[in-house]
Amino acid sequence: MISKKLEKAINDQITAELWSSQLYLQMSLFLKHEGWEGSAHWMGMQAGEEREHALSMANYLIKRGGEVKLAKIDEVPCGWDNLLEVFKAVYKHECHVSELIDELVDLASAEKDKATQDFLWGFVREQVEEEATASGIVDSLKRAGENNYIVVDRELGSRK
Ligand code: MG
Question: Annotated binding residues, as ranges?
Answer without folding.
Answer: 17, 50, 53, 94, 127
